[in-house]
Write a structure and sequence with these properties.
Strand order of the largest sheet: 1-2-3-4-5-6-7-8
Enzyme class: isomerase
Number of strands: 8
Keywords: Carbohydrate metabolism, Isomerase
EC number: 5.1.3.9
Family: Belongs to the NanE family.
Strand content: 5-15%
Pathway: Amino-sugar metabolism; N-acetylneuraminate degradation; D-fructose 6-phosphate from N-acetylneuraminate: step 3/5
Order of helices and strands: HEHEHEHEHEHEHEHEHH
Number of helices: 10
Length: 238
């Protein structure tokens, strides 16, 4: 099953269909429709947040779903599939693969990265580790994850802080690891996605640039506000 999954994902676009509770598009039905649109466009997989979204997308598309659950805990900075509780919920929802935070930071409720990966292996679910550095990518491979994603680069205090995708990390990890390296994070343009593949990425995840219209519109608004409009127009009166 895992081999078939990665053969399907190889060289393709995985669309991250996510909307948080305070965003207008939040809801399983809306994310399911986003996933259907991505499938029509030729995406090879979906990354989805929350058991309800995973279940709806699995039921209404033919694409594999990489599931995760974002849940905050008071005793840790980690919020992406932080404990076995989230893993169990995603397995119940039918996630094809589960993404977990693969950084070196302390996990909540006494959980460990090694323990969580072992638990997932016993449950028979493929593991994607979201990492922020090359060292984390190497360690994730050592403890048995099935693939790594550069999702967390720039989101930990010790990782590279930049506006563009971390192509350097993609290249370095893909040259050193035997498992697939998925490019994810700050990919806003098609040429950046293509560049990640050229740098060695196994596949590419794009989220905000496709499925978060409030962020897309915000980028246009910010760019326009930097420009002084030309004068000379006569403002029409009603």
């Amino acid at each position: 099953m895992t081999q078939d999954l990665f053969s399907h994902l190889f060289g393709g676009l995985i669309v991250s269909c996510q909307a948080l509770e305070d965003e207008p598009l939040h809801g399983a039905d809306t994310m399911m429709k986003m996933a259907q649109a991505a499938e029509l466009a030729g995406a090879v997989g979906i990354r989805a947040n929350g058991a309800a979204d995973v279940k709806a997308i699995r039921a209404h598309t033919h694409l594999p779903v990489i599931g995760l659950i974002k849940r905050e805990y008071a005793d840790s900075e980690i919020y992406i599939t932080a404990t076995r509780r989230e893993v169990d919920e995603l397995i119940e929802a039918g996630a094809t693969m589960i993404a977990i935070d693969g950084t070196c930071r302390p996990r909540p409720q006494g959980e460990t990265l090694e323990g969580l990966v072992s638990y997932m292996k016993l449950r028979g679910v493929p593991v994607m580790a979201d990492i922020s550095t090359f060292e984390e990518a190497k360690y994730a491979e050592e403890i048995g994850v099935d693939c790594v994603s550069t999702t967390m680069s720039g989101y930990t205090s010790y990782s590279s802080q930049q506006e563009d995708p971390d192509i350097k990390l993609v290249k370095e990890a893909s040259e050193a690891l035997r498992i697939p390296v998925i490019a994810e994070g700050r990919i806003w343009h098609p040429d950046q996605a293509a560049g990640a593949l050229k740098a060695g990425a196994f596949a590419v995840v794009v989220g905000s640039a496709i499925t978060r219209p409030q962020l897309i519109a915000e980028r246009y608004v910010q760019a326009i506000r930097k420009v002084e409009p030309k004068h000379g127009y006569e403002i029409p009166h009603s």
